[in-house]
Amino acid sequence: MERFELLEPNSLDEAFRLLSEYGDEARVYAGGTALVKLMKKRLVHPSYLVNIKGLKGLHYIREDEEGLKIGALATLREIETSPLVRQRLKVVGEMVHTIGSVQIRNVGTLAGNLCFADPASDPAPILIALGANLKIASSEGERILPVEKFFTDFYETALSQGEILEEIQIPFLPKDSGAVYLKHTMRVAFDLAVVGAAVKLDVNAKDDVCMSSKIVLGGVASTPVRVKKAEELLKGKVINDTLITKVAMAASTEVDPIQDVRASAEYRREMIEVFVERGLQKALERAKGGVL
Amino acid sequence: MKRQLELKVNGEDYSLTVEPHRTLLEVIRNDLGLTGTKLGCGGGECGACTVILDGKAVKSCLMLALDARGKEIWTIEGLSRVGDLHPLQRAFVERGAIQCGFCTPGMIMASKALLDENPHPSEQEIKDALAGNLCRCTGYVKILEAVLSMAKPD
Amino acid sequence: MADEYSVIGKRLPRIDAMEKVTGTAKYLGDLTIPGMLYGKILRSPYAHAKILRVDTSKAERLQGVRGVVTGRDTKGIRLCVIPHLANKPPLAEEKVRFIGDEIAAVAADSEEIAEEALDLIEVEYEELPGVFDPFEAMKADAVKIHEGGNTAIHISRSYGDVEKAFGESDHIFEDRFETQAQPHCCMEPHGCIVHLDRSGSLTVWVTTQIPHPYRKMLADVLGMPLSKVRVIKVYMGGGFGGRFEMDPMEIIAYFLSKKTGRPIRIINTQDEQFTTGRTRYPMVIDIKTGVKKDGALLAREVKVVTDNGAYNSHGITITMGVGTKCTYLWGLPNVKYEADVVFTNKVYGGAFRGYGNPQITFAIESQMDMIAEKLGMDVKDLSLKNANYEGQLTCMGHKITSCGLKDCIDQAAEAVGWKEKRRKPGNRGVGMASLMHTGGGVRLLFGDCNLSDVFIKMNNDGTIDLASGMAEIGQGSDTALAQIAAEELGISIKDVNVITGDTWTTPQCLGAWGSREVFVAGNAVKMAAGEIRRKLFEEASRMLEARVDDLVAKERKVYVKGNPEKFVSIAQVATTCYNRGRILAGRGCYDDPTTYIPDSKTGYGGVPTYAFGTHAIEVEVDRKTGRVKVLNFVAAHDVGKVINPMMAEGQIEGGGLQGLGYALSEGLVWEEGIVLNPNFQDYRIFYINDVPRMKSVMVESIDPDGPYGAKGLGEPGLVPTAAAIANAIYDAVGVRIKSLPITPEKILRALKEKE
Question: Which among C323, C186, C198 has a CA at the least distance from the CA of C247?
Answer without folding.
Answer: C186
